Here is the input.
Amino acid sequence: MRPGVLIFWLLAVPMVACALLVITSRNPLRSALFLVAHMLLLAGMFLSLSAQYVAAVQVVVYAGAIMVLFVFVIMLLNLGGAQKMDAAGLGWALGIAMSLGLAALFVGTGVWKSGLHAGKATAKTLAQGGTAQAVGFALFDPELPWLFPFEVASIVLLMAAVGAIVLAKRKL
Amino acid sequence: MNAPLQDLAIAPIVWAIPGLPLIGFVLIMFWGGGLVRTLGDARGRRVVGTLATAVVLLSFVISVFVLLELLRLEPEQRRAVASLVPLMDRMPWIEVGPVSVQFLALVDPLSVLMCLIVTGVGGLIHLYATGYMSHDRDYPRFFAYFNLFIFAMLVLCLGESLLLMFVGWEGVGLCSYLLISFWFDDEENAKAGNKAFIVNRVGDVGFMLGILASLAVFGTLSFHTADGRGILDLAARGETLSGPLTVATASLISALLFLGACGKSAQFPLHIWLPDAMAGPTPVSALIHAATMVTAGVVMVTRMSVLFAQAPVVLLVVAAVGLFTALFAATIALTQTDIKKVLAYSTVSQLGFMFLGCGAGAFGAAMFHVTTHAFFKALLFLGAGSVIHGLSGEQDMRRMGGLGRYMKVTYWTMLIGWAAISGFPGLAGYWSKDAILAFASGIPSIGMFMYAVGAFTAFVTGFYMTRLMAKTFWSAPRLPEDAHHPHESPPSMLLPLIILAALSVVGGLIGTPWGNAFERFLEPVLPGADMLHVHEAIPHGVGLALGALIAIAAMAAGAAAYRRAPSAELLPATVKATQPIYRAAANLWYADAAANAVFVQGGGRFAGFVARWIDKGFVDGLVNAVGVVTAFLAEIARGGQSGYVRFYAKTMIAGALIVLAYALIQAGMR
Amino acid sequence: MGAPTQAIRDLSGILPILVLWGVALVILLGAPLLRRGPGSRLAAPLGGAGALGALLVLLRGSSDGFGDTLFAGAALTDTLYSSGAFVLLLGGFLSVLVAQTYLRSRDLEKPEYYAIMLLSLSGALLMMQANDLIVLFLGLELMSFGLYVLAGFARTDAKSDEAALKYFLLGALASALMLYGIMLTYGVAASTELSNVQSAVARGALKEPMGIAAALLLVIGLCFKIAAVPFHQWSPDVYEGAPTSATAFLATTAKIGAIVAFLRVCDTIAGGYHTWLPAIRAIAILSMIVGNLIAIAQTNVKRMLAYSGVAHAGYLLVAVACMGFRLMGTKGTQASILAMTGAVFYLLAYALALIGAFGVLAYLSSRDKDAQTLNDLRGLASSQPAVGYAMVLFMLSLAGIPATAGFIGKWQVFYAVLTGGDVALAVTMALTSAMGVYYYLRVVWYIVFEESAAPKPSPTGHGVEARPRAMTGVGAAITICCIATIGLGILPAAISSFLTVVR
Here is the structure.
């Protein structure tokens, strides 16, 4: 097994496990912490793909800022205790079955026929592709189609912020 | 059949024929109520009524001018198009791809004939309604709808393409719905309106599919075009858009169109709405459910006769359905006690005769019967309305009798109507019914059978009409003690009766077998002899003599029977209750009940637990049945609407899984 | 480098969006002034001006620069976009008019409402202009965020909260599926730009499992937005719970934006029609049947219109299905172009009738009563004839009765699918439309033939609580919708210069 593939499996298995634990934990705080773990592993995955910048952002923004906020809210609302889950039943089983089915389809369509194969990237592109500079050039170069969606994203965020305030604030 | 389109000098004002009633509708709809309020009740009503009547009569005058103009042309050249929009040569309506539908009127003998009937008889009925409805609180609204109906009917008759005809077709259906339910305080009327609309939808689906099929086959919706590529142009040459017109194609289209005609013209089994429609005001019954709208099916079949002529099997079905409906409805009419119900079933029966004519290939004779029927059936309905008016709303013939001496004009005009519908020699109904029966006898191999059944139905017709006259006018009075003193109707109601009576006497003379001006007039729109061979197996003299004999026999037998029964009941009550044939007929041959039993009771047990969801009393009979079944299905589907997000999400995922899995498996199998 | 001119060309291509963004920012920044006092009367006019301004800019600019890609291939302008945008912005403007009265009478008005509306409209415009699946997705999210918030705008009303939450959760799920589809598309095409996707499809990308899954996940995501079966279940709950003005807006905006995007996506992947066409046909037929069937059992007009919206999604999917015929000979190509024009006209007719109908409900609502059920419409024809008959007209248009705009729209789609030779879809459409008349008629029934529950107005013509409402926004909206519904039913050619899609 090539080292890259080995690292992939070393990261991927715990990552999926953490994701599952997020939704199965009865304690919201524990869920949040598993999410942090998941995101850190994801950052590792990015690193293994030579996407240093994205990996850093993943750690700083998601695993750092956003998750801290999550934990804050959970503490603030005093949701520390275990939450009651719905009893297992037919619906539950059906849900699991369907999720597995969907997962199988997603993974299957990605892998079947085309198979898992190494990327076409060379060492040089890898070294250049993941830096903050490279990402910056890609996002802001008017000759590339990414500038426009990048700007649109800011409007999406504005909309989300305004929406959250309108819905949350009792009196404006 | 293939003459090019002509230019008519009068074309620039053809738009006014449907346009004037539309203007009347708009004026009355928006300002009628205000007018009544500002001018005071009596004067306001007079203005509204006069306006509504005047626009229709004015349309009639214009139609007469168009007729005169048309008559100046050679017979085979009598075909023109005219814009339906004032001041514009042609205004496009829908332009999708190569198909263009324009607001054009087709001016030819058939459409002009229908315009004359609709505006002429319609105008008289408007006049009558000014008297009949004078006490109604929604007087302006009634006349607004009435004018709108005339407009829609004229669009139906004049429309240059199938689609424009469909616009009128739906429009008259809508007006019929609004007018049947006009007295909406009464739940019966409400139900009837719904029933009429929904049963008609069944037919309309057929019509719509027929339109789509013609579009696919002929690539156009116009009847005639300048370059000779209209539906009827192509069909007359036996062509389609691509290749020759096969019998199968012609049969498919004409069968679908005939389904539409069955709905509108109340042919078995879609007849169930018409008798219930009598719940509306009597002028509505006379105008819409006797003289004009219900004949739209016959008009449409005649308009498309070139196509029907190439579908012999469908023609046979048309004849069979017509004949069966004629007999079936006539026997029911024998047993009804509500004066309007008798006339309603009589209308269904007469419409059956018209389709028998169409089926025999005698489209001219069928249209002739449409014309004479418009005269005498409108007369009978208006007469019945006059009786009902005189008795302050009584419709049950068991509580009438001896009215002849109170209502002289009504009586004498009704007498003429009775003679005309029964086929008394020389009157309108005699000539047209005879023409249909004579042609029916020429249907290959079963012509004589058809003739015999038709003649028998004619006898039954004479008998039930005599029964109606006996119960209403001749027998001893059976009015309840506390009833108002019967009174004659006002002149505005009597004048239309007199004019229609005159037409019922002389109206048939335009179509006698000797010098049949009517047939010759319509000939250009009908399939030529080379396409459809029609003949009469019975010689003229024999047919006419037999017809006269049957009519007189029926009237005499009826009169004699009721003369010996002073109570105007032929059969004792016990016989009525036990005699199976009588009971079956009195129960409408269980047509409604069958619909009820199959769908409502059968389905009712099945759907017991959802009964509370069914909007009880919304529609009954077949319609209720459809309602139960659909509501039941709706309820099953609605069960999925639990309100839980997780359930919704699961449905979505399941849907996604099915879609994906299906596509992948399908791809794998390829 | 010629960057400045290129930048100006790019920006002028998205000028309607810029106008919307600009006005939205003005409203947001000026919110403190617009919130209360005399300034509060300005919020709605500003919102209306935003939508109308974008519409005017669109009409002015529609003469030049067509078929071009903008921003290095991220967006484009063409006639499908411009005709769709015309319908969308007109609907947006009418929705502002409805909201002006409704929010005021329900005491819900905040300036942010209009800002969110405008941003949401810009999202829908982006979906139509997208030449790249990423832009399409961003537009979809921008539009949807706004709709989620508007659905929950009546925050003290539990039903409104529930509507927003349900819409958001299920919408997020749908977005996730769609995003996965975009990712798989990148997997097969090595690009998300539509032209590249198209050439990848031409090379047979949709024969691989990954390509098949990609195409269908895109289809599923868009089906959710237009509420097609089985992705429709959110719609009745959301339609019912959302404030009426928001329902009018979200029902039309989501459908217009998503259908135009749908047409574009399916047109792009027409080469692999055999993978997605069966799915779309099945979903269309299911939607037509299920939507019409369940609508019959409804007594709440908003829910009824939600199910009728499911049915209309089915009819519109018939037009989308026509995209699959594009490569099947000349007839097929003709069918696909006809279907685009037909779908846009259909959307216009639908938007007019739907906003009109919700406008009537809004018109009848007051601070203590939110008109929603059939009972609220009882006897409207005699108590308030103008509004009553307007509602009748909207119902007839939705039912597709001739001489209304709805009929023309249905006819165009009919004709397109018939040209494509798909008889099954055409017949299903004809049969289910006939079925649909039943429940539209029920509304007409309640309006015209039921006695009004409320006491009759006094003989002088004005009841005790006569409100001079006809002069306000919703009255204008109803009037415009009425005139346009009749006008387009009789003279559809009047608008064809804006609405004809050329290829």
